[in-house]
Write a structure and sequence with these properties.
The complex is a heterodimer of chains A (about 120) and B (about 120). With about 120 residues, chain A is mainly beta. Chain A is built from no helices and 11 strands. The termini of chain A are far apart. By secondary structure, chain B is mostly beta strands. In chain B, β7 and β8 form a beta hairpin. The chains are: A mainly beta (about 120), B mainly beta (about 120).
């Protein structure tokens, strides 16, 4: 169990550019979540996957945001035409939902700064 | 939707003393209450969790209590040490075996400082 891995750790981009983040969950976990955390706040739910199916999206996830988990393993979160308000820490978490549920385990996040 | 309130926002205690952080939730259907510790530059790390069929759970120096009637749960840290300094978040969700989205709603966090 190597934990949830997120890349890159930091990303600085100019307003209007597109960015993509990657998350590698704990290998046996079938659920993968994306959260966003702004300074001084708790994480806010964005979306989650059960295997490769995206099952729920928060209203926080505007149409500039898209997430995929093509083979039910790693996931990507893309933000198009970034805005300064997108600056935040983007956290990925994974868990196993089944007979023996596991808690959500978070990665160390990708910190996005939009200039 | 669920709303979780957390108090206090900052807490300073002398090393060796106890720290208590309190949270309330709004959705009576919530049945799972984890606590996370977040250190600077890192993601939240689970430290303890409790389900609604249990009133109290303890793990060494950390304990959590739950009052379902009042929709209130608390984190207790005893014999605090400098390495306990961090931001602590409570959260709530509806969790069932094999289904449910486990969407955690977090509180706004408590910055705990242990004074040596």
């Amino acid at each position: 169990d190597t934990g949830v891995s997120q890349n890159p750790r930091h990303k600085i981009t100019k307003r209007g550019q597109n960015v993509t983040f990657r998350c590698d969950p704990i290998s046996e976990h079938n659920r993968l979540y994306w959260y966003r955390q702004t300074l001084g706040q708790g994480p806010e739910f964005l979306t989650y996957f059960q295997n490769e199916a995206q099952l729920e999206k928060s209203r926080l996830l505007s149409d500039r945001f898209s997430a995929e988990r093509p083979k039910g393993s790693f996931s990507t979160l893309e933000i198009q035409r970034t805005e300064q308000g997108d600056s935040a820490m983007y956290l990925c978490a994974s868990s196993f939902l089944g007979q023996d549920n596991s808690p959500l385990h978070f990665g160390n996040g990708t910190r996005l700064t939009v200039t | 939707g669920e709303n979780v309130e957390q108090h206090p926002s900052t807490l300073s205690v002398q090393e060796g003393d106890s720290a208590v952080i309190k949270c309330t939730y709004s959705d009576s259907a919530s049945n799972y209450f984890p606590w996370y510790k977040q250190e600077l530059g890192k993601g939240p790390q689970l430290i303890i969790d409790i389900r609604s069929n249990v009133g109290e759970k303890k793990d060494q120096r950390i304990a959590v209590t739950l009052n379902k009637t009042a929709k209130h749960f608390s984190l207790h840290i005893t014999e605090t040490q400098p390495e306990d300094s961090a931001v602590y978040f409570c959260a709530a969700s509806i969790r069932w075996t094999n289904f449910g989205n486990e969407k955690l709603t977090f509180g706004t966090g408590t910055r705990l400082t242990i004074i040596p």
